[in-house]
Amino acid sequence: MKKITKFKDQKVLVLGLARSGMAAALVLNELGAIVTVNDGKPFAENKEAQRLLEEGIKVITGSHPIDLLDEDFALMVKNPGIRYDNPMVERAEALHIPVITEVELAYLISEAPIIGITGTNGKTTTTTLIADMLNTDGQSAKLSGNIGFPASEVADKAVSTDTLVMELSSFQLMGIETFRPKIAMITNLFSAHLDYHGSQEAYEAAKWRIQENMTADDYLILNFNQEKCRRLADQTKATVVPFSTKEQVAGAYAKEGNIYYHDELIMKVADLALPGEHNLENALAALAAAKLRGTKNEAIVEVLTTFAGVKHRLQYLGEVQGRKVYNDSKATNILATQKALSGFDNSKLWLLAGGLDRGNGFEALEKDLEGLKGMVVFGETAAKLEATAQKLNLTVMKSENVATALQEIFPKTSVGDTILLSPACASWDQYKTFEERGDLFINTFEAIKSKKA
Question: pTM here?
């Protein structure tokens, strides 16, 4: 960690704990800041706050008192999930207190160069692929950021010979000031998080901040399959490296069944371990980043031919009695499910879908559902999805949840069929997180596998 002095003896408020707030508080304390942590969870239930108090850090829990901001803070480090219309954040901005997120702190202290990955879909898979490629090549890549490892915690331990491979959300990028990755990437841009950002334009502007401090010495990887990303190429100072599945570009591309980087043949598309057009895009994006870090082709090919997927993201669980089963619990919107479906033969596919009803219909999914062998629907949107399936004359049945859905459909499937959980909905009607939903599905699969063994 760089022993920077800009925070020494400065009063800093960390708003919101969880893992990133905890990491930020500990790093700032180590750097000599006078840290106060404010978190809404009561102290008796707040293990993070209890630990910080043991470290000698001031903690205020159970509420967010506005008058706390009268204490002349020099900086606020905000949990990325806290919106900018939160009264505490609004008050800080009114007092001209800078408000950052923990990834800015990570950049300031990191001795290691950063590869930053953002976009609407594919971030976690692409981030993991890049780290795997670098590590397989004998380099030292550290996963960090929105992928579950607080960026400042990883940066604290990283050395100059490491590379931080950092997944970045729009929420995190709204709180940067000097953040400058050596390599940045936007996987794609679609509609998302409008409840947080207020408009698609604001959401895309937050994503675009990833490159705002970059220069021609840095690299920005963009998805040239999307016209809007192509247009962005003219609006950055960074050196643009495109990727495309549709045309030959001056970067990574697929052509006539092969994958290339510039004019160099890397491998065959058919040899990719993960199915689907979206995973081909992820592979190309990861390939571009890996090549920019000098990664050898052998390491890249080894990863792309063996990578089984990130947990809950089109994760291949295995095969039981000739039926393949995939867990795509992370598919919390229609677009993600469309991308998942693109990788399979619908005539042999059973789709398990449903979840939180956000008021939308499923008309946009109809074309992708055509020809499905069948569907099992559950959750608040079960009736809507059932009506969609009936409109397309598909076999459809209702079930209670993801576990019963798999239990009930398995006996109705045939050898050669595939069962795919890709809900197209958030999980919060029945589960706390998509991970909890996916774990229940995995456990149910393992029980069926054991029973059939």
Answer: 0.80
